[in-house]
Amino acid sequence: MSNNGPNRRGVCLVLSAAPGVGKTSISREILGTEPELSLSVSATTRQPRPGEEEGKHYFFKTPETFAEMVEAGGFIEHATFLGRSYGTPRAPVEQALAAGRDVLFDIEWQGHRLLREALPQDVVGIFLLPPSIRELERRLRHRGQDSDEEIARRVAAARDEIAHWDEFDNVLVNEDFQTTVQAVRTILYAARGERARQPWLGDFVAGLLRE
Ligand code: 5GP
C-alpha cells in the first residue's frame, strides 16, 4: 500500500517467564504459523544442553568473546542469569524491524526492561505465569536435563522472575497450551494494527479523503 518501504514497522514481541513455564514450546508453535515473525537468537556463555544447536537455539560464546561483543556494542541488551551472560545481538533486530518483520524474544525480565528502554515504541511484552510453583517444578524435572541442584536454583530464580510480573503490558497464566498460544497470537495481531506502527497511514487516509 505504501510506495516506498514496508507498510508497517515490525513488532518486538517479548515472551518472558521463569524457565519451565512453557515459553519455548509456545514460541515454537507461534513461529511455525507466523511467517512474518522470526526468533531473536541470543548469545550466551552457558554450555549447550543436549540437542541445542549453535545459531539455532543460541550462539554459544566464551566469557571472553561475550565481553568483546559487549564492548563493541554488539548487543541491544544483555543481562546475567544464574551467573551466566545472555545477550540479544543488535543488527538482526534493527534490520527486521525496519523491514516490517516481527521479532520474538525469549528473554528474562531484565532483558525486557532493557529492550524497552532501547526500543520504547517497538516492544510489546507478555509475561507468562505458571499455574503453580509445584507445577513449575514438575515441568522442570520432566525436562530431565538438569541436576537436582540446578532445578533448585531454577525454582529459586523462578520466584525472583515472577516478582517482576507487573512490568509487562500483558500477563497470561499458562494453564492450557493452546489457549495461551491463541492469546499470544491475538496480542501480536493487535500490536500490528497499532497506529504508531503504520506511518504510511497518514498519506493513505489523505488519499482516501481526496477521492
Ligand atoms: P536458559 O539457560 O534456560 O536457556 O535461559 C535462561 C534465561 O535467560 C531464560 O529466562 C531466558 O529467557 C533468558 N534469556 C535467553 N536469552 C536471553 C537474552 O538474550 N537476554 C536476556 N536478558 N535473557 C535471555
Structure explained in plain terms:
The protein is 43% helix and 20% strand. By secondary structure, it is α/β, with parallel strands linked by helices. The chain has a domain at 12-40 and 101-210: 3-Layer(aba) Sandwich (Rossmann fold). Helix 5 (133-143) packs antiparallel against helix 6 (148-162). The protein starts with 11 loop residues before the first strand and ends with a helix. Bound molecules: guanosine-5'-monophosphate.
Write the layout of secondary structure elements.
Blueprint: E1 12-16, H1 23-33, E2 37-39, E3 42-44, E4 58-60, H2 63-71, E5 75-81, E6 84-89, H3 90-98, E7 102-106, H4 109-118, E8 123-129, H5 133-143, H6 148-162, E9 170-173, H7 177-192, H8 201-210
Helix pairs in contact: 1-7, 5-6
The protein binds guanosine-5'-monophosphate (5GP).
